[in-house]
Design goal:
By secondary structure, this protein is an alpha+beta fold. It is 34% helix and 20% strand.
Length: 372
């Protein structure tokens, strides 16, 4: 391995974990302990603060420095950096312009062979469709939320109500506060625990002090107030894992697991390969006679029945009885709609396309059951 490439690899290893025994570094790089010491000294000369760790094995630790030394990337890291900067648009933060400038700056200082790889890797991003009341999150808001999470300080903030109707149970409104010319809800008070990015949106997972319960707040509706509250001792998040909690809440559960509140089984008169691409986390089993067995979950029995009804095929409910009853509920609703439409029949503006798939591509996102 060439000396320069070896320095990059050594720096990459030192950045990967806190402490490295000298012998382990020598084995990973295929060099002697003495060469490791010389390479560490070269990195120190470049401005990297590398501390020697005492002990039976001895080793090295890369400390955080006050000044930013020259950035060195191996080839794969440079490509990952370029991809990350080009896909910032998916984060919902409005950082696209700064990310483009950062990519241009990084590209200018890279060797020609890496510049060629980055130029060949042009990524087009397709952000999630946003609601009428959505806007990119202010970067300053994200910094304020992240600071409160890290400092474990009670957060006081104004929370804007949604301007569009959303699915899910209505939430009680806070007690209004009289102000000149009208009333405004009082500031919310919460213990911030996690800042989460999900499907192009940012959320704050926090313990709401006024409601004495966990809440998931939309970050684009939060306006942090100037002064934070006292420090707090973090509570135990239901399920113990923020990913499980957030995913579970958006599926309509209490957040302790990834299971759907309602899970049912049915047989569809379609081949499994026509059904599987549209069922996300559902289970599809091939059956004889171009049929398939489907095990699928949803946030309600009616929602589960509606999901299965999207397929242009006969349906046989295996269980449970709640699913069959949900189909009966849908049948009554559809019959009422059809009866009203029969009196004023319109021409078919969407003729059947025999080349279309059996079902439209589904939206697997459940209603926001975890609204604040």
């Amino acid at each position: 391995m060439a000396p320069f490439s070896r320095l990059l690899t050594l720096l990459s290893l030192l950045q990967a974990r806190r402490d490295w025994p000298a012998q382990v570094l020598a084995d990973r790089l295929g060099i002697s302990d003495r060469t490791v010491r010389r390479d560490v000294d070269r990195l120190r000369d470049l401005g990297y603060r590398i501390q020697s760790v005492k002990g039976p094995a001895g080793g090295y630790r890369l400390e955080a420095g006050s000044n930013l030394p020259p950035l060195l990337f191996v080839d794969d890291q440079a490509v990952v950096l370029a991809v990350a900067l080009q896909t910032v648009g998916l984060s919902g933060t409005g950082f696209e312009e700064p990310a483009a400038r950062a990519l241009a700056t990084v590209r200018q200082v890279m060797p020609g062979r890496l510049r060629h790889r980055i130029d060949a890797l042009q990524v087009a991003t397709v952000p999630e469709q946003r609601g009428v009341d959505e806007k990119p999150v202010d970067p300053a808001v994200l910094v304020a939320l992240g600071s409160a999470v890290r400092s474990r300080e009670v957060l006081r903030f104004d929370y804007a109500a949604a301007r569009s109707v959303q699915a899910g149970a209505p939430q009680p409104l806070p007690t209004p506060v009289s102000v000149p010319g009208g009333t405004l809800p009082p500031p919310r008070r919460a213990e911030p625990h996690h800042l989460v990015a999900r499907s192009g949106r940012w959320y704050l997972v926090a313990w709401d002090l006024d409601r004495a319960d966990w809440r998931i707040f939309r970050a684009d509706r939060i306006t942090p107030l100037t002064h934070t509250g006292p420090r707090f001792e973090p509570r135990n998040l239901p399920g113990g894992d923020v990913r499980t909690f957030v995913s579970g809440r958006f599926r309509g559960s209490n957040g302790t697991s990834l299971s759907w509140p309602c899970t049912g089984e049915a047989v569809l008169a379609l081949p499994a390969h026509d059904v599987a691409p549209y069922l996300a986390d559902g289970i599809v089993e091939e059956l004889p006679g171009d049929r398939c067995r489907v095990v699928l979950g949803a946030w309600s029995w009616v929602a589960l029945a509606a999901t299965l009804a999207r397929f242009d095929a006969e349906i046989e409910v295996v269980g449970p009885p709640h699913l069959a009853q949900a189909f009966a509920t849908l049948a009554r609703r559809f019959t009422a709609v059809a009866s009203g439409a029969a009196a004023n029949r319109l021409p078919d503006l969407c003729p059947e396309d025999t080349t279309a798939p059996a079902a439209a591509s589904p939206d697997t996102t459940a209603p926001t059951a975890a609204r604040a």
